[in-house]
Fold these 2 entries.
Entry 1:
Amino acid sequence: MYVAVKGGEAAIRNAHRLLADRRRGDPTVPALHLSQIVEQLALGVDRVMAEGALYDRELAGLALMQARGDMIEAIFLVRAYRTTLPRFGYTLPVDTGAMRIERRISATFKDLPGGQVLGPTFDYTHRLLEPELAEGAKPPAPERREAVAEASPRVTDLLGHDGLIEADGTGDGEITDITRTPMEFPLPRDGRLQALSRGDEGFLLALAYSTQRGYARSHPFVGEIRIGEVEIELEVPELPFPAPLGRVRLTECQMVNQFKGSAKAPPQFTRGYGLVFGQSERKAMAMALCDRALRAAEFGEDIVAAAQDEEFVISHSDNVQATGFVEHLKLPHYVDFQAELDLVRRMRAERQDVTETREAAE
Amino acid sequence: MQEKVIDQNERRRLMAIVARAPRTAIEEALVAFGPLPPHRELRKAQTGLVTLRGRIGGGGAAFNLGEATVTRTSIRLETGEIGHAYALGRDAKKARLSALIDAAFQSPVLHERIVGKVFEPLARNEADDERQKAEETAATKVDFFTLVRGED
């Protein structure tokens, strides 16, 4: 017999109503406007887009607002929304070499075409709180300097010629899509990159850090980080050319790592790659380090650390899945627990019986 | 009807500029253009997803990066020209105006006015914005210099 216990409807309704009120906060404080979140909490919005795997600044901002600033809840909302939309297709691959540069740095080459461009960075700030920001101080207008039209080729392309560094590789075979087909390990590198790009920043950061601390050492250098907008184009039947859709901001990280070479291949640098929605530098770096660590088998390296274990990394990198499974523990488990409680009681009773019998025998 | 060869390269540039422009800028340009030509919706504005692709290492094999919202629509002018619109985002009104601009671009009667009142002003606005951003970015470019230390 199965007996369903119902209840809590009114409590749930009232809890959600209370949530709406607490989300609004003190009513004497002006309400946030979506555009304020999109404009002024831009990197938070970018993270929701990246891990929600949906490029739409307003939706990500709305999700952040609805989630009271809870990143993973906001990411969950975005993922849920995604599933309600029809799919129009796959765009042409973006050309990050033609990116409209907003920031571009290399830790390996000082002088490179296009130069080192710092852009709007937290680097070199003193990490001191600025109370005047809370007072609503107006920032001075940015300094301007004549912009020389100069291409900024990817550093890895500059080095590629002499074979000192691993080439991009080719292969326009079948492209894995983890949103269409269930993941099966081992995943090809394209599928891993798709998962890493939407993976949890904190989780990937910790794994990347572990590789630096000696768990899967890979001696990384930042070959290049670039942030800026790229054009998106989609082939459609009704137009004789790819439809231009507009631009999105991406962060790309080229990590360059040591490699000793083998009997077959002369020594050359290997690479890890990161590409993430929005201005997401830390995430792109972590992604590139994890990408390289996960290529261990390809280079014949011993798999000794968590960051090299594909199934471990990829299966646990999705924070929506992770939070779903962890948080489901909150839901009523009354029956499961009752069953286990009975079991423990029975086991204890049996043990007591055995002890009593043994004592009686002695 | 007078046959006119449509410059597809120019049409593509126009569509790109319109797709990138904020709706308010398009509306402003269309005010200058004057009354909109009679037309009807051929395909209702629809919002969906496209999967953006990158390349491994920047130039290698393609991989799926993540999705983006896109809105598309098609309209037909009373004179027969069909205009299409595709743009990132969820703005149906922007899509309808963009499709109208594409259709008008193909119309021998409206072509010149679309180029003069919509295409060129939008392109100018965008170029101004881009120049400002490029100059602000250029000011953060590092100029290295060498410190000479010690004697000779």
Entry 2:
Amino acid sequence: MFSVKTILPTSTQSFSDDILSTHRRHQAELDAMDLDEDEFGAGPSKRNIVTPGEVITSSKEYMRGHGTYVEDVNVVSSVTGTIERVNKLISVKAIRSKYVPEVGDLVIGRIVEVGPQRWRVEANGRQDAVLMLSSVNLPGGVQRRKIESDALKMREFLAEGDLLVAEVQAFFGDGAMSLHTRSLKYGKLRNGQLLSVPPQLIRRLKSHFHHIPPPCGPTGVDVILGLNGYVWVSNGTSQEKREGGEGFDSEGVYSDKNDDIPPEGRQATSTITNLIKILADEGIPLTDTLIEESFNWINQNQLPLGSIAHNDAERMLAEIVGIDITA
Amino acid sequence: MSSSRIEILNDGGLRHDARRPYELRSTSFQLNTHPTAEGSSTVTQGLTTVQVSIFGPREPRQRSQASHDKAIINVEVGVVPWAQGGGGIKRVRGDKRLQEIGASIRQTFEPVIMTHLYPRSEITINVQVLSADGGILPTSINATTLALISSGISILDYITSISIGLYLKQPLLDLSFLEEQDLPNLIISCLTNSNKITLAQMETRLHIDRFEEMLNLGLEACKVLKIEMELIVKEQTEKIVERMNVKSIISSNASGMNIDE
Amino acid sequence: MVREVDPPSIQKDFLLAALAEGKRLDGRIPLEQRKIEFIFGDELGNVECRIGKTAVLAQVSASIVKPRDDRPYEGFLMINSEIGPMASSIYENGRSSDSEVLITRLLEKSIRRTEAIDREALCILAGEKVWQLRLTLHFLSDSGNLLDCASMASMIALKHFRKPDVEVIGDEVIIHSPEERAPVPLAIHHTPLCLTFAYFENLPPILDPTHLESTLCAGTLTVTMNAQREICVLSKAGGTPLSAEDIMGVVRVGVDQVREMVKIMDQALEKDRESRVIEVQ
């Protein structure tokens, strides 16, 4: 009764690979019907992928998890993604989604508002996060008591626009996350640049602070992979300085001034930034080993630092990750 | 009614652009066409192209607007100045027609987006009409569905939309601008699984007996569109899933430490 | 737009419980309209329409203007409608909210685009002089279902209105005052009237929702029909998804309802005509 014309729209040549012929439709219908109850979570097969409105299974036998809803007697997907099953719990993991925070997550955020006893932090979540004055370390030592004058000086510590790295401490009743920076690892960020990547590319790892050692710049490059998709790439510092050991400048924690960074350090930072961008653009999950390997690859091939040419990027992806983006 | 300048349906049963009455225009669906939006899509139906980008759920720009138990949905509709080509109505920002299209899109998607999952936040749907040749609203709705899917926001089902015209006693599907001008014109959008209509709009006089026929025809056309969309979505998803699994090849650190659940 | 305070949830529960038993808070059955009342003003074309406590005043006036170059035989019908804070505190002066845009657009579509008024009959002298009708709507009070009330007020005002008789001698146009010659009624093709239905989840639709009902409902459907069994405008945006049969169901209900409404309107007009002296002795 119907047919869909499959002629290329004249004005949109680039859409060519998205045009479909009608006969493939039947394949999709068959696949949908073949979804067997025994097959959830069975490898990266095509049947694992569902789109909104697709019936996954009966709600009598399974419980619904995230990304699903129950209609009549069926568990139905509400997002596009892969089915995941833990015993009787069926959930669908969306392939793309806004960052969903969990307690203990490491995030990078930006101060958007200084309020009474608290900062509001934009952290790529569905609501702004809150950083209470009581959950930060102030200059003068960990044990220092907060006095009234600190509340008046809040903007001196962190002002609107400042970037910081923090940990998710808890959630408020309305779902907003509460952050804390009560560790010497956390706090204000400087000496580097911010990158934003899709949050699902950053997995929960043992550590999110990575140090790429020289020859990547004179002092190496530090990378902080925030789980909210914000990545901080900065000029490297030594282990001790980072974690409050020898030479840790407790007064400089809230400093707004960048250190003197030699040109080589800046170049290394931007090289790492560009590498992360290339990997993220292709949807490859980021890990410290991957970033380090890609830098080594650049180094071994003696390519110029800084920006990376497109064909070099292609070659790198093919050799390191094993994917072909030319197709 | 008005005298038609074009022949709507010729003796051979073809329309002015050589389509048969029930034939849809060539369609193309593209996902993730906007670099920074959470979700985006570009949909082309014939010579009508619409790009939709979705921002959010995020902190509401006006905090007073926030609702404590659900997300609020904002829709902005814009038409680029060059969209109209030869014939068309000048549409500027803030125009009542555009406002109406925006309200229709918002009301269509409000019951479908699971807003209760995103309390105190806002979802902004930006609709940009890049070229217009009839059926702006149906194409915008189709594009919004795809953009929502690509954003990972929970929705109940695909919503597809189509316009249906009537020439004498012959219903026509997916009207072009010229046909839209001359024919009674019904726009419906529906949830394809349950076959239920979320939006129905008609602006011209029509006898009720014909109306039912057009309604049912539109529902079937919506299903066809859904199948096409689903194909694209699945294809794209497979690609992304494949990339996401690349990690197991190279990283020793990452494997085994995946504690998302 | 000012956000209205949500009604108390206990009121919502009560309303829904009553509806589930097929009862409404004001004692109507689900598909019953509130009482329609027309108050005719002193002038022709000035009518106030009331449905329950919702009131809209419509005023028609006519002036002579030059027609558009591309349509020399057609007169104009302009609809002015702006909902001010008088109707309800949720409306603001000068700024148009979404609901306001929908009301005015739907009115425009149902009256203007369906050609309810024969615009060619408004022509006096082709290319030179045509009548321009101005329909101004004043929204006096919003107690739900402004749209239906406004569409009824508009149509009855247009039917009530009479334009002065004109005489064309060569290029000269003489306008006769109502004292000289009886003014003539407008040529009206059909009477499109809006009917608004409200939906609640898993409940049958109700006709003519009150303010409370429309704030609590899951969606509305407005259908504009005439007595000739024609659908002029149908607008259902959002709300509970409906099947095709559901939609056809309300359309069928609408057919009879509109006939009934047209009858009421005609009776009211007839009654007014008896009390009014229009003809010149």
